[in-house]
Design a protein that fits this description.
four-stranded antiparallel β-sheet, 10 strands
Protein backbone atom coordinates (compact mmCIF):
# COMPACT_ATOMS: atom_id res chain seq x y z
CA UNK A 1 0.00 0.00 0.00
CA UNK A 2 2.84 2.33 0.89
CA UNK A 3 4.51 1.48 -2.39
CA UNK A 4 1.35 2.37 -4.33
CA UNK A 5 1.16 5.74 -2.54
CA UNK A 6 4.75 6.48 -3.45
CA UNK A 7 4.11 5.53 -7.04
CA UNK A 8 0.97 7.66 -7.09
CA UNK A 9 2.82 10.65 -5.70
CA UNK A 10 5.57 10.16 -8.20
CA UNK A 11 3.07 9.91 -11.02
CA UNK A 12 1.24 13.04 -9.83
CA UNK A 13 4.53 14.89 -9.61
CA UNK A 14 5.28 13.91 -13.17
CA UNK A 15 1.95 15.29 -14.30
CA UNK A 16 2.62 18.58 -12.53
CA UNK A 17 6.05 18.85 -14.09
CA UNK A 18 4.61 18.10 -17.50
CA UNK A 19 1.95 20.77 -17.05
CA UNK A 20 4.60 23.20 -15.93
CA UNK A 21 6.64 22.41 -19.01
CA UNK A 22 3.62 22.96 -21.25
CA UNK A 23 2.55 26.18 -19.47
CA UNK A 24 6.04 27.66 -19.69
CA UNK A 25 6.36 27.13 -23.43
CA UNK A 26 6.10 29.88 -26.21
CA UNK A 27 3.70 30.08 -29.12
CA UNK A 28 4.31 31.58 -32.64
CA UNK A 29 1.62 34.31 -33.07
CA UNK A 30 0.28 35.30 -36.50
CA UNK A 31 1.50 38.84 -37.39
CA UNK A 32 1.18 41.33 -40.23
CA UNK A 33 1.87 45.07 -40.80
CA UNK A 34 0.76 47.99 -42.92
CA UNK A 35 2.89 50.99 -43.89
CA UNK A 36 2.48 54.35 -45.60
CA UNK A 37 5.66 55.56 -47.28
CA UNK A 38 6.85 58.82 -48.80
CA UNK A 39 5.53 61.21 -46.12
CA UNK A 40 6.98 64.70 -46.70
CA UNK A 41 7.04 67.75 -44.43
CA UNK A 42 8.12 70.78 -46.49
CA UNK A 43 8.22 74.19 -44.83
CA UNK A 44 7.17 77.29 -46.72
CA UNK A 45 9.38 80.35 -47.16
CA UNK A 46 9.04 84.03 -46.38
CA UNK A 47 11.48 86.02 -48.50
CA UNK A 48 11.32 89.70 -49.49
CA UNK A 49 13.13 91.84 -52.02
CA UNK A 50 12.90 95.62 -52.49
CA UNK A 51 13.63 98.24 -55.10
CA UNK A 52 12.85 101.91 -55.63
CA UNK A 53 10.32 103.20 -58.11
CA UNK A 54 12.78 105.37 -60.08
CA UNK A 55 15.21 102.59 -61.00
CA UNK A 56 14.72 98.85 -60.49
CA UNK A 57 17.70 98.45 -58.16
CA UNK A 58 18.23 98.45 -54.43
CA UNK A 59 19.25 101.75 -52.91
CA UNK A 60 18.05 104.62 -50.73
CA UNK A 61 14.65 106.14 -51.46
CA UNK A 62 15.80 109.60 -50.37
CA UNK A 63 19.09 111.06 -51.57
CA UNK A 64 20.24 114.63 -52.14
CA UNK A 65 21.74 114.84 -55.62
CA UNK A 66 21.02 113.12 -58.93
CA UNK A 67 23.57 110.61 -60.17
CA UNK A 68 23.79 107.48 -62.29
CA UNK A 69 22.29 105.64 -59.30
CA UNK A 70 19.10 107.72 -59.38
CA UNK A 71 17.44 110.79 -60.92
CA UNK A 72 15.08 111.78 -58.13
CA UNK A 73 17.35 113.73 -55.79
CA UNK A 74 15.53 115.80 -53.17
CA UNK A 75 18.02 118.66 -53.09
CA UNK A 76 18.84 120.31 -49.76
CA UNK A 77 15.96 120.18 -47.29
CA UNK A 78 14.26 123.21 -45.74
CA UNK A 79 11.16 123.57 -43.54
CA UNK A 80 7.92 122.74 -45.43
CA UNK A 81 9.79 120.53 -47.91
CA UNK A 82 8.00 117.26 -48.58
CA UNK A 83 9.06 114.36 -50.78
CA UNK A 84 7.40 111.07 -51.66
CA UNK A 85 9.19 107.96 -52.85
CA UNK A 86 7.94 104.46 -53.54
CA UNK A 87 9.32 101.29 -52.05
CA UNK A 88 8.28 98.18 -53.96
CA UNK A 89 8.45 95.06 -51.81
CA UNK A 90 8.07 91.67 -53.49
CA UNK A 91 7.27 88.52 -51.57
CA UNK A 92 9.46 86.00 -53.38
CA UNK A 93 8.55 83.26 -50.89
CA UNK A 94 5.69 80.76 -50.83
CA UNK A 95 3.78 82.03 -47.76
CA UNK A 96 1.57 85.10 -47.48
CA UNK A 97 3.07 87.82 -45.27
CA UNK A 98 1.71 90.68 -43.17
CA UNK A 99 3.44 93.90 -42.18
CA UNK A 100 4.02 94.04 -38.42
CA UNK A 101 6.53 96.83 -37.74
CA UNK A 102 7.72 100.07 -39.35
CA UNK A 103 11.19 101.11 -38.21
CA UNK A 104 13.50 104.06 -38.94
CA UNK A 105 17.04 103.60 -37.61
CA UNK A 106 19.39 106.63 -37.34
CA UNK A 107 22.87 105.98 -38.73
CA UNK A 108 26.38 107.25 -38.01
CA UNK A 109 28.25 108.32 -34.89
CA UNK A 110 26.38 109.03 -31.64
CA UNK A 111 26.43 112.76 -32.49
CA UNK A 112 25.07 112.09 -36.00
CA UNK A 113 22.38 109.82 -34.57
CA UNK A 114 21.37 112.59 -32.16
CA UNK A 115 21.04 115.00 -35.11
CA UNK A 116 18.97 112.40 -36.97
CA UNK A 117 16.58 112.05 -34.04
CA UNK A 118 16.31 115.85 -33.82
CA UNK A 119 15.28 115.87 -37.48
CA UNK A 120 12.91 112.97 -36.80
CA UNK A 121 11.17 115.04 -34.14
CA UNK A 122 10.50 117.76 -36.73
CA UNK A 123 9.49 115.44 -39.57
CA UNK A 124 6.20 113.67 -40.27
CA UNK A 125 6.33 110.37 -42.12
CA UNK A 126 3.41 108.87 -44.03
CA UNK A 127 3.51 105.29 -45.29
CA UNK A 128 0.62 104.42 -47.59
CA UNK A 129 0.00 101.10 -49.31
CA UNK A 130 -1.27 101.84 -52.82
CA UNK A 131 -3.34 99.16 -54.48
CA UNK A 132 -5.15 98.60 -57.78
CA UNK A 133 -8.30 96.44 -58.03
CA UNK A 134 -7.74 92.80 -58.82
CA UNK A 135 -4.03 93.10 -58.15
CA UNK A 136 -3.39 94.87 -61.47
CA UNK A 137 0.32 95.56 -61.97
CA UNK A 138 1.04 99.16 -62.96
CA UNK A 139 3.61 99.87 -65.64
CA UNK A 140 6.51 102.23 -64.90
CA UNK A 141 4.78 105.35 -66.28
CA UNK A 142 1.56 104.69 -64.36
CA UNK A 143 3.53 103.95 -61.20
CA UNK A 144 5.41 107.25 -61.42
CA UNK A 145 2.19 109.16 -62.13
CA UNK A 146 0.48 107.64 -59.09
CA UNK A 147 3.48 108.43 -56.92
CA UNK A 148 3.49 112.06 -58.09
CA UNK A 149 -0.24 112.34 -57.37
CA UNK A 150 0.28 110.92 -53.88
CA UNK A 151 3.10 113.42 -53.38
CA UNK A 152 0.74 116.31 -54.21
CA UNK A 153 -1.77 114.94 -51.71
CA UNK A 154 0.79 114.74 -48.92
CA UNK A 155 2.15 118.23 -49.66
CA UNK A 156 -1.29 119.83 -49.42
CA UNK A 157 -2.28 117.72 -46.41
CA UNK A 158 0.74 117.81 -44.08
CA UNK A 159 1.58 121.46 -44.82
CA UNK A 160 -2.08 122.48 -44.71
CA UNK A 161 -3.42 124.80 -41.98
CA UNK A 162 -5.87 122.23 -40.57
CA UNK A 163 -3.16 119.65 -39.95
CA UNK A 164 -0.71 122.17 -38.46
CA UNK A 165 -3.35 123.58 -36.10
CA UNK A 166 -4.21 120.06 -34.96
CA UNK A 167 -0.49 119.27 -34.58
CA UNK A 168 -0.07 122.29 -32.29
CA UNK A 169 -2.90 120.97 -30.09
CA UNK A 170 -2.17 117.26 -30.08
CA UNK A 171 0.12 115.23 -32.30
CA UNK A 172 -1.95 112.05 -32.20
CA UNK A 173 -5.09 113.97 -33.15
CA UNK A 174 -3.31 115.50 -36.15
CA UNK A 175 -1.94 112.13 -37.26
CA UNK A 176 -5.40 110.53 -37.04
CA UNK A 177 -6.95 113.33 -39.14
CA UNK A 178 -4.24 112.98 -41.79
CA UNK A 179 -4.57 109.19 -41.89
CA UNK A 180 -8.32 109.39 -42.53
CA UNK A 181 -7.71 111.83 -45.39
CA UNK A 182 -5.10 109.50 -46.90
CA UNK A 183 -7.44 106.49 -46.66
CA UNK A 184 -10.14 108.41 -48.56
CA UNK A 185 -7.80 109.24 -51.46
CA UNK A 186 -8.20 107.62 -54.89
CA UNK A 187 -6.56 108.31 -58.24
CA UNK A 188 -7.39 107.27 -61.79
CA UNK A 189 -4.42 106.45 -63.99
CA UNK A 190 -3.99 105.17 -67.54
CA UNK A 191 -2.27 101.80 -67.47
CA UNK A 192 -1.61 100.18 -70.85
CA UNK A 193 -4.67 101.86 -72.35
CA UNK A 194 -6.99 101.01 -69.47
CA UNK A 195 -8.15 103.33 -66.70
CA UNK A 196 -7.24 101.92 -63.30
CA UNK A 197 -8.56 103.30 -60.01
CA UNK A 198 -5.76 103.30 -57.45
CA UNK A 199 -6.67 103.56 -53.77
CA UNK A 200 -4.96 103.34 -50.38
CA UNK A 201 -5.53 99.99 -48.67
CA UNK A 202 -4.03 101.21 -45.39
CA UNK A 203 -1.73 103.94 -44.10
CA UNK A 204 0.44 105.04 -41.20
CA UNK A 205 0.99 108.71 -40.28
CA UNK A 206 3.23 109.78 -37.42
CA UNK A 207 6.46 111.36 -36.27
CA UNK A 208 9.60 110.06 -37.95
CA UNK A 209 11.19 109.88 -34.50
CA UNK A 210 8.40 107.54 -33.37
CA UNK A 211 9.53 105.04 -35.99
CA UNK A 212 12.82 104.77 -34.12
CA UNK A 213 11.43 104.25 -30.59
CA UNK A 214 14.84 103.14 -29.22
CA UNK A 215 15.17 100.69 -32.10
CA UNK A 216 11.82 98.97 -31.56
CA UNK A 217 9.96 100.95 -34.21
CA UNK A 218 6.18 101.15 -34.18
CA UNK A 219 3.64 98.35 -34.35
CA UNK A 220 2.21 98.88 -37.81
CA UNK A 221 -1.31 97.92 -36.66
CA UNK A 222 -2.37 97.97 -40.30
CA UNK A 223 -4.49 94.84 -40.75
CA UNK A 224 -5.00 95.39 -44.46
CA UNK A 225 -1.31 95.27 -45.33
CA UNK A 226 -1.12 91.66 -46.46
CA UNK A 227 1.50 90.72 -49.05
CA UNK A 228 0.53 87.46 -50.81
CA UNK A 229 3.22 85.09 -52.02
CA UNK A 230 4.76 86.09 -55.36
CA UNK A 231 3.07 89.52 -55.24
CA UNK A 232 4.49 93.04 -54.90
CA UNK A 233 3.44 95.72 -52.41
CA UNK A 234 3.67 99.40 -53.39
CA UNK A 235 4.46 101.50 -50.32
CA UNK A 236 4.52 105.27 -50.80
CA UNK A 237 6.87 106.83 -48.25
CA UNK A 238 6.45 110.56 -47.66
CA UNK A 239 8.65 112.64 -45.37
CA UNK A 240 7.69 116.25 -44.59
CA UNK A 241 9.98 118.69 -42.78
CA UNK A 242 7.41 120.55 -40.67
CA UNK A 243 7.58 124.32 -40.16
CA UNK A 244 8.13 125.13 -36.47
CA UNK A 245 5.60 127.99 -36.27
CA UNK A 246 3.51 127.47 -33.15
CA UNK A 247 5.23 124.18 -32.33
CA UNK A 248 7.63 123.15 -29.60
CA UNK A 249 10.80 122.75 -31.65
CA UNK A 250 13.26 124.97 -33.49
CA UNK A 251 13.99 124.42 -37.19
CA UNK A 252 17.17 126.50 -36.91
CA UNK A 253 18.81 123.79 -34.80
CA UNK A 254 19.05 121.66 -37.95
CA UNK A 255 20.66 124.22 -40.26
CA UNK A 256 23.64 122.69 -42.08
CA UNK A 257 23.02 119.20 -40.70
CA UNK A 258 23.09 116.02 -42.78
CA UNK A 259 21.36 112.98 -41.32
CA UNK A 260 20.82 109.40 -42.42
CA UNK A 261 18.14 106.83 -41.65
CA UNK A 262 17.57 103.20 -42.58
CA UNK A 263 13.90 102.38 -43.19
CA UNK A 264 13.00 98.83 -42.22
CA UNK A 265 9.75 96.88 -42.61
CA UNK A 266 9.18 93.69 -40.63
CA UNK A 267 6.83 91.02 -41.94
CA UNK A 268 5.48 87.80 -40.44
CA UNK A 269 3.67 84.82 -41.91
CA UNK A 270 -0.12 85.13 -42.12
CA UNK A 271 -0.83 81.43 -41.68
CA UNK A 272 -1.51 80.37 -38.07
CA UNK A 273 -0.81 83.92 -36.91
Amino acid sequence: MMKKKKMLIAAFSSVVLLCAAIGGGTYALFTSSAQNTGNTFASGTLSLSTHRNDVPVEGPMFYTADSDAGRMGTGLWAPKDTHTRAMLIKNTGTLDAKLTDLIAIPEGTPAQQADALAFGEQAVVTVAALAAPGGVTLNADALNEVNEAADRLFKSLINGPSFLKALARNGQEAFAIAREAVLDWTYRVDNNGQTVLVSVSDAYVGSLKDLYNSGAGRDANLPNLILPAKKTMHLAYNVTFVDDTGLGFDNDSLQGKSVNFTFKNNFEQVKNN
